[in-house]
Structures are given as C-alpha cells and as structure tokens.
Write a structure and sequence with these properties.
By secondary structure, the chain is mainly α. It has 13 helices and 4 strands. The protein is 65% helix and 3% strand. Its main location: membrane.
Length: 392
Amino acid sequence: MEENKISKIDISIYLIIIIFMCISCAFIYSAQKDLPYLDNFALKQAVWFITGIIVSSLIFLFDFEQIKKLSLYLYLFGILILLLLMISPESIAPEIKGIKAWFSVPGFGSIQPSELMKIFLILFLARIISDHNNINTTKSLRLDIWLLIKIFLITLLPLLIVVLQPDAGTGMVFVSIMLGMILISRIDWRIIVSIFGCGIALIVFLALCFLYNQEILLAFLGQYQLDRIHSWLDPFSDSLGISYQLSQSILSIASGMLYGKGFTEGIVYVPEAHSDFIFTTISEEFGFLGSSIIVTLYFALIYRIFRIAFKNKGEYEILIASGVCSMLTFHVFENIGMVIGLVPITGIPLPLFSYGGSSVLATIFALTIIINISKNTKKYMFGGGDNYNTKE
C-alpha cells in the first residue's frame, strides 16, 4: 500500500540554471564591449533564458508515457526542419562561414534546428532502446546486433544532414549521444568493445588522411573546417590569419594567470568572445580560479542528472539522462578543449554560458525533462529507502 506519495522536483538543477544565467549574462556583457556590433547580447541572452524556462515548463504537462509516444513525431519533425533548411534560399537560411545551419528570424536573430534535433534524437533513441529491451527479455548476440543497427540508422539520418551543411561539430555531438546511450543499452560488452575499437581505427584513418591525402577529408568536410585543423596544430604559425582566433584565445587565457585582471578588465581581443569563446573572458578576468568554478558547476550539474536518473530506476528515463549527460559532457570538453588548444575548433557552444538562443533553449529543454524525471520519482513509506518510477 502506497502512503505519503510525494512528488519531488529537484530544485538544484533550477538553481544551477539560474547561476549560469547570471554568470553568462555578466560575462557576455563584459565580452561585448569589444565587439563590432551594436546589439546588446547580454540582454538578448537574458531574454532567451527566460523564454527557455517559460516554454520548457510546458513539459510538466506531459508524463513520460506521453513523451515516449511523442518522441517519434519530434524526431521526424526535426528531420523535416533540417531538410527544409538545406533547400531554403539564402534570404531565409544564410550561409555563414561556409556553413548553412541557421534560419534567419527577423527580430529574433537566428535559430539553429540541429540544436533541438539533439534532444529529439535522445528522446527517440531512448524509446527504441527501452522498447527493444522490454520486448526481448532474453538476450542474444543477434538481438543485440539488431538493436545496434537500429540505433545506428536512427542516428545516421540527422548525422548525414548536418555533415552536409557542413557542420562537423554538431555531427560529433550526435555521435557522442549515440555512444553514451549504447554504453547503458545492455548490449553485450564484446560488441561495445568492438565499436570503440572501430572508433579508434577511424580516428587513426582520419589522421592518416590528414597527413597524406586531405582530398578524402574534403569529401565530407569543408575547406574552412580543414583550415581549422591546420590552425589547431600550429596556432602561432599564422597568428594574423586563420590561427588568429585560437592564438588570441590562448594569450587571453594565459594572461589571466591565477586570479585574473578583474571584471571587464580584459584587454586581449578574441573574436566572437561572447559566443563560442566565452570561456576566454572569464579565464582572463577571473583567472584559473574563476574558470575552475565554471568547470565545477558543470560537474555538479552532470552529477545531479545521474543522481536523479538512477534514483528513478525507470529504463526510459535513465536512457534519456545518459543521452543528456553525454551531450553536455561532450559540449563542455570540446568547447573548453578548443579554446585552450587541446582539440580542433569546431564551433560548439559552451552550454548555458555561450551566447546563442538555440543552444540555450535546447539545453534548458533537456534539463527540464530531467527535472520532470525527478517530479515523477515517488517515495514509499515502507519502500526500504528506495525510489521507484510510477505511472500516474
């Protein structure tokens, strides 16, 4: 008999979102003083945050059975929007730096459909994996391979579209989501080891192509992305050309040292410092200590997502959480890695920190789903301290 059933919303994630909103707007304000634009990006970012929180609250109107049913339609809607983007004229979908990835919306700026597609992909993959495991209670190598094929094909469709934009960075996010969800999909470990072995082999192959035959890479990468790799390997060889952004980023971070120069006191100019390179601003103005606080906040956020999911014990919800964690972890690692020169520049934003309405909306949307998981976790008086997922 169930007694004292209590719905709990995990407010810690809301608090982290609010903290990021304040920090993001403050440092975008600091970064925009040197930008060649008249827009008030800090104010726009605040509007995107508020809009994201309000719109995403609609998720609480749905339970997870309804979300699960809607996941197919959301996935197909995301694919349709990506295809429309490809065939839209320049007036609607302008090409920026050789990439056609945004819809231009008068009065709002631009919308990047692939950001929302990440969330739709997570929801649909979670449905496919959980339904497969519920139907096939007896595990076998053949069934695991069939599940793997389904996961791969579902990921492949949006992946091919964004690679054709060409947006290799978003493509890598799709792959990271897929791999993260495969890890907990209950597929046989021998298959998983084989997948990661093939992944390592692919990386070696791409490295050899870059060294000896770059024409192969140009088949799915634009010249701009290839130039980015060159600038990453030797950022100071052309510090006034293609390597300018990375070399300035490294100088900005290094000049912050331990404590930084103080708020708005940054003097090293970094192009697009309010967007993908926002981490350079806090590193220069608040040094290693300030940047460490940001990294710690991301660790706290990912930790809370895992705590919520694994307390819930519902496979569909755990799969969603693993996809969200994979997405956020890759974003954070790739963005911070690229601004310090650890990995090539890919144009991936820092979640809840970089300026960008699409990124903010998608991230808050994903986190609201996680909060909804906590809302639907019920505690029982005689449940031995465990929490179980129940359907209303």
